[in-house]
Every structure is written in structure tokens, then in C-alpha cells.
Design goal:
The chain is built from 11 helices and 2 strands. The protein is mainly alpha-helical. Helix 2 runs parallel beside helix 10, helix 5 runs antiparallel to helix 9 and helix 9 packs antiparallel against helix 10. The chain is globular, with a radius of gyration of 22 Å.
């Protein structure tokens, strides 16, 4: 996905009144909006209870795997056909020293930290189950739905959880040295979607913190046992 803050070059000298009447600018925004609606529709429609039940009756234990596959496919289509808006000025751009050097470095550091947090969530969440692998494995062993083996607190969390990394994705979407018009559309649409779907509460947060501390303790105990064995 190429934007003005990356590979494209924006026309900051073009007035907004002219840029917003430019057919190339409007055409790119229409295409980008359509791609975002496609991704959001796939992400929401397949998670809607009536559709989930219908797909479950057809796909069985492959339902979650199909959801992840179609999500990845929709995301690939969005990135492949995204149209950068290069005929309009950036909403903001840091181009004056010394901030033109330090602010991109700050953005990179915080983006790296956010992606590290996102990846660390694999410690807390059951990644094979999120991808639909565990459902197939349990079905082959005749163990039923993996969710039925979880505690009531975990089931409550998963019923509320739409996306586990709202804050981190918000930083990645908005904290940029330059914000182009197409990136504003991307950040605004995905931020609004995440905000509307957010329903976690204090009890969910307490359970997440407890799970994280437990998993970290298990990892540290395993490392200590390895050192003792040596």
C-alpha cells in the first residue's frame, strides 16, 4: 500500500479547492473507500451470528479457518489495489530541521514498539485457535469445541473481544511524519471501525493481565529448569 508518506510525492502547492475537484484525486478516494468497505464488510459479515451459524452448518470445524483465509484475502486485495492520492497536499508534513530527522525516527521507534506489543499478544492468546487450527485438531480427537474447555472468564473475554490491539493499531495508523489524504481515509475508517466494535471492560482487562503474568511466569520457570538441567 503506497501512500504520500511513503513512496508518493504530494502536491503541497495545490490549493485544497483545486485538489478536491481533481478527478484523479476523487477517483483514487472512491477506489480506496470501496476497498475499505470490502474489507470491513468481510470482517463484519462473516462474524455476524446468523452468518456464522449458516457457515458453521456448511463448513463445520473449518469455519474459523475460512474466516481467517477470507480476511487475509480481503487484506491482500486492499493492499494490492490501494490508490495513493498524489494530487492533493498532505494534511501535515514534518519537513523542517531538526524535526524532519527526529520525528520520523520517533515514529519508527513507536511503530516498532507497537508491533512488538502486537506480536507479544501471541503469548496471551491461543494463536492456533485464533487461526482455526486447534478446532480441526480437537475435532479429529473428538474433543469438541476448544471454547467449551475454557474458563467462564475466557469465554466472556472472547465474546467481547473484537480486536485485541486497538491502541497499538491507532498509533501505527495516525503517528506519521506526513499524513496524506488517502492515509487519512485509511486511519479514519479503521479507527472508527475499531472504536465501534470495542466492548471490553475492567473485568476483561484484569483477566488479560492475569493471563499475561501467568504465561510470563511459565516461560521464566521453563528457562530456569533448562539452566538447572545444564
Amino acid at each position: 500500500m503506497k501512500t504520500n508518506s511513503g513512496y508518493g510525492v504530494s502536491h503541497d502547492s495545490v490549493p485544497w479547492s483545486v485538489a478536491l475537484r481533481d478527478r484523479s484525486v476523487l477517483g483514487s478516494l472512491v477506489v480506496d473507500l470501496g476497498l475499505l468497505l470490502l474489507f470491513i464488510a468481510q470482517h463484519s459479515l462473516l462474524a455476524w451470528s446468523p452468518v456464522k451459524r449458516a457457515l458453521q452448518s456448511v463448513l463445520g470445524v473449518l469455519n474459523r479457518t475460512a474466516y481467517c483465509f477470507t480476511t487475509g484475502l480481503a487484506l491482500q486485495v486492499l493492499m494490492r489495489y490501494w490508490q495513493p492520492v498524489t494530487g492533493a497536499p498532505c494534511l501535515w508534513a514534518v519537513r523542517h530541521a531538526p524535526w524532519s530527522i527526529w520525528f520520523p525516527l520517533l515514529c519508527f521507534s513507536l511503530h516498532f514498539l507497537c508491533w512488538a506489543v502486537i506480536c507479544s499478544l501471541l503469548i496471551v492468546f491461543d494463536y492456533p485457535e485464533l487461526m482455526g487450527i486447534k478446532q480441526v485438531y480437537y475435532d479429529c480427537l473428538g474433543l469438541g469445541d476448544p471454547l467449551s474447555h475454557k474458563s467462564p472468564q475466557a469465554q466472556r473475554l472472547l465474546s467481547h473481544l473484537r480486536h485485541p490491539v486497538c491502541l497499538e493499531l491507532g498509533v501505527v495508523l495516525w503517528l506519521l511524519p506526513a499524513l496524506s489524504l488517502d492515509r487519512l481515509l485509511l486511519a479514519g475508517a479503521l479507527s472508527g471501525y475499531l472504536a465501534l466494535a470495542h466492548s471490553l471492560d475492567r473485568r476483561d482487562l484484569d483477566f488479560l493481565c492475569l493471563q499475561f503474568r501467568t504465561k510470563v511466569q511459565l516461560l521464566s520457570d521453563g528457562q530456569q529448569d533448562d539452566h538447572k538441567g545444564e
